[in-house]
Design goal:
This protein has 833 residues and is of the alpha+beta class. The protein contains 19 helices and 42 strands. The two termini are 42 Å apart. The structure holds 1-deoxynojirimycin (NOJ). 1-deoxynojirimycin (NOJ) binds next to helix 7. Keywords: Glycosyltransferase, Transferase.
């Protein structure tokens, strides 16, 4: 794929109200800017990149959205408002000018055609107006610190047209929160300077004063710049009575060449495209970047002033994605399943791996209170482990480095502070809010640690080991986190030791029923019961982590350790079965006095989704209770738009349960369809062998299948949102908080590893599908440890599960595990029955 060459899109689907999936080009093509709510795409990585919304607004950061923000994107502004960037296309009209934006925003000028192609780390607009066709492509070349904006204008009407291009960016103070909270200090420090070059090129340099010698932002273009503005007030005109919709500067031939010694810094460039004749195209490419100095930036500036390098960079980006996605490609009878599994779901996993829950149109990345979440990122990593294990390992090690010597983990860390080794890079998350609450005797009422965080890392490391076979990783030493100490001064331990301490921490923090303590919270952030409460989720996660650890130790040949962890597993399984069954389902928590939550006796929050799925996933649910719990879930929690996290929702704020009851019934954790929980239901169903159920749960939440009901769903159909309102809410079915959700990693794992059943193991590639009975089978290609496996699954008896025969390279083998080959292409034929 190059900047211009594309495969023909599937036109038949173009009739959809908002847009359609163009699978051939791996894009979603939006055909109207009037999306129900703001939709967006991601470009670049956390190292440099951010969000591009569908109307040209860009939120760009380098390394940390809170501490090194570049553009001033205010997500709460209405969709039609300017948000940090745009391009004006101006056409001479007699003695005056008319203009439009190819993004539609902010000029709101009627266009003859408008499309936004949401691609893999790029967005491309195609707009037509005044006899011009404008194509704008925004992307960040791989491993670069530059946002490129490739603008091509073609005269499609005939008769030469005199055209100008005016791209504009507005800068943020690097400390994102300060930009919003301090209107004296921020503008006093903001500076924009122009550096004209002899040949007509121009670089606009921008920095906050204290950063001048460390990090400067810049905007430039490949062609000559005849004038510019760096001061927003000057550009908009008339003391800002001119607007972004109609900047008064655009009525003049040239901009005012305003630098900015303080105030609202922008970078507006006047590029005269000159007279564009019929069918002729003018092309220019802008650059927005950040480097230590302009001198350092010069190399990249020169490089991308050559449009051949822009094309090359775009082709490299496409090649990156082709390679990333070819790790697993599938062909099943369900087109929207294929669309998600082959393109959009693994792509979303890449996004969550980069931005954790830090930067989206919902998680705004201000302040350092959020950062990279321990619980979230450990899970996100599992979604990219097959595609980019070594990149995943970098983040895995960062997370391990904020585990405390006691074994539990800090809840989140700020990436820049970690890099700078500040000694205070990590924090305890929301538990800090209640850290000082004490009872009459002065005892702390709440834990300042989360009961689940440290356990997830066992699953993450295990997934790396299974994918790569590199067991030597376990010997690598990483420091534990000791606040206030520099890394070199902290206690170190091997990664294996880190995992052991994680399990030991939970083993040593049990409650009245011998079940793991809740801590401040488990997966459900919103349930914060006083110290002493127990969590059946933490119980199941602990058990699952123990199973993974037994596998690791077995592979290492440490039979004594295997026996010990087996003992711990049996202990917790017994304790769980002795205390957690409620009659028709499993309870979810016990408070410090032993009262159950998630029981039929309760008025609200009678049954919880994770309370049923996780005991199955971890194997601690015994006998008929495993299926019974899942059947109760189906009966009481399932809806046509997904499984609710609990029911009924609390009807008002109840201080005893806190966060969960701050939402109205049907929203978020309070009886909403909190999507992250749904893939766990799918996985549990596959473990029970109920493939029709698993697939049904998959389809209910598949966003690609919601393209026809976007007026209900509202959220982007090309990625999973975090939540959908439940049936106790009037807006049942409405999705919110798109992109950064654990739904992505787990639905991807559920689809590929459990429904299709293709998963890495220490001994080879497992193929153990659990598919809907109506499927005749499916095909898949999976890269694993250097080899390519061409898998074909046939289902002649229309069962869900059970491998009757596996033939690898023509030879029948006595299991469902294809051997490790390390190279070549190998045929794996599987017959179910
Ligand atoms: C969102 C948080 O990012 C995630 O860690 C948590 O598990 C869910 N909320 C559920 O409470």
């Amino acid at each position: 794929m190059t900047a211009t060459k594309k495969k023909p899109a599937v036109k038949a689907k173009a009739s959809k109200k908002y847009g359609y999936f163009d699978d051939a080009n791996k894009e979603y093509v939006l055909t109207t800017p009037a999306t129900p709510i703001k939709w967006c795409n991601y470009v670049g990585t956390l190292d440099f990149g951010g969000i591009v919304d569908t109307t040209g607004g860009t939120l760009v950061c380098k390394g940390d959205p809170a501490l090194n923000r570049i553009t001033k994107y205010i997500a709460q502004m209405p969709n039609a408002d300017f948000k940090a960037s745009t391009v004006y296309i101006r056409v001479k009209d007699g003695k005056s000018y008319k203009f439009f934006s190819p993004f539609y925003v902010p000029t709101l000028q009627k266009l003859d055609k408008w499309e936004c192609h949401i691609g893999l780390s790029y967005s491309r607009w195609i707009a037509e107006a005044f006899g011009l066709r404008v194509q704008v492509t925004i992307f960040v070349p791989t491993k670069s610190n530059t946002l490129l904006q490739d603008i091509q204008i073609t005269n499609i009407a005939g008769g030469a047209k005199e055209v100008d291009v005016i791209p504009v960016y507005e800068f943020s103070h690097f400390e994102a929160e300060k930009q919003l909270t301090n209107a004296d200090w921020v503008p006093q420090t903001m500076t924009l300077k122009a550096h004209p070059e002899k040949d007509g090129h121009l670089v606009l340099e921008q920095y906050a004063y204290m950063k001048r010698d460390y990090a400067v932002n810049y905007v430039t273009a490949d062609c000559k710049i005849s004038s510019f503005d760096g001061d927003r007030r000057v550009f908009l005109g008339c003391n800002e009575m001119g607007s972004w919709q109609h900047p008064l500067s655009l009525d003049n031939k040239e901009l005012s060449n305003s630098e900015c010694d303080r105030g609202d810094n922008i970078a507006a460039l006047m590029i005269h495209a000159g007279k564009i004749g019929a069918k002729k195209t003018f092309r220019t490419c802008t650059q927005l970047g950040q480097e230590q100095s302009l001198k350092v930036a010069n190399k990249a500036i020169k490089k991308y002033r050559d449009l051949k390098n822009v094309d090359k960079a775009f082709a490299e980006l496409a090649a990156f994605w082709d390679k990333y996605l070819e790790t697993i490609q599938v062909k099943t009878p369900d087109a929207s399943f294929n669309t998600m599994v082959n393109v959009h779901n693994p792509r979303q996993c890449h996004t969550t791996k980069n931005w954790s829950r830090y930067l989206s149109l919902y998680q705004l990345g201000y302040g350092t209170s959020r950062g990279i979440g321990y619980r979230d990122s450990t899970q996100d990593l599992m979604g990219v482990m097959s595609h980019m294990p070594e990149e995943a390992l970098v983040l895995t090690k960062n997370l391990i480095s904020v585990q405390r010597p006691e074994g539990n983990a800090m809840h989140q860390y700020a990436p820049l502070a970690l890099e700078e080794d500040t000694g205070s890079e990590a924090n305890e998350g929301d538990s800090r809010e209640k850290a000082n609450a004490v009872d009459a005797q002065g005892n702390h009422l709440y834990a300042d640690w989360y009961g689940d965080d440290h356990l997830w890392i066992v699953l993450t490391v295990a997934s790396y080991l299974k994918e790569t076979g590199k067991m030597e990783l376990l010997d690598e030493e990483i420091p534990f986190y000791e606040k206030g100490k520099k890394r070199a001064e902290r206690e170190k331990g091997t990664i294996l030791e880190h995992l052991k301490r994680a399990l030991k921490f939970t083993r040593e923090h049990l409650g009245k029923h011998n079940l793991p303590l809740l801590g401040f919270a488990d997966w459900n952030d919103c349930m914060n019961l006083p110290l002493g409460a127990e969590s059946t989720f933490n119980t199941a996660l602990y058990a699952k982590a123990l199973l993974e650890m037994m596998d690791i130790e077995e592979h290492l040949g440490d039979t004594k350790a295997v026996e010990m962890y087996k003992g711990w597993y049996e202990d917790v399984k017994k304790a769980f079965n002795e205390s957690a069954w409620d009659g028709k389902w499993w309870v979810r928590w016990f408070d410090k006095d032993g009262n159950a939550y998630g029981t039929n006796k309760a008025k609200y929050g009678k049954i919880y989704c994770n309370g049923q799925s996780w005991p199955v996933i971890s194997g601690i649910a015994t006998g008929a209770h495993a299926e019974q719990g899942m059947d109760s879930l189906n009966k009481l929690l399932n809806t046509k738009y997904g499984v609710k996290s609990s029911t009924p929702g609390y009807r008002g704020f109840e201080p005893s349960v806190g966060g969960i009851s701050t939402y109205p019934p049907g929203a978020k954790e309070n009886g909403g369809i909190f999507l992250h929980t749904n893939p766990w239901v799918m996985i549990a169903e596959t473990i029970l062998g109920r493939g029709d159920n698993a697939y049904n749960y998959y389809c209910q939440i598949n966003p690609a299948a919601k393209n026809d009901i976007l007026d209900v769903f509202e959220s982007e159909p090309y990625c999973y949102p975090q939540n959908i309102l439940g049936d106790e809410h009037k807006q049942f079915g409405m999705g919110r908080n798109a992109w950064l959700s654990g739904t992505s990693t787990w639905t991807y794992q559920a689809a590929t590893q459990y429904i299709l059943g293709i998963r890495a193991s220490y001994n080879g590639l497992v193929v153990d599908p659990c598919i809907p009975t109506k499927w005749n089978g499916f095909d898949a290609v999976r890269k694993f440890r250097g080899a390519t496996y061409e898998i074909s699954v046939k289902n002649p008896k229309h069962v869900s599960k059970g491998v009757a025969q596996m033939i690898v390279d023509g030879q029948e083998i006595d299991s469902n595990v294809a051997p490790i080959f390390t190279k070549g292409t190998h045929k794996v034929e599987v017959i179910l029955g």
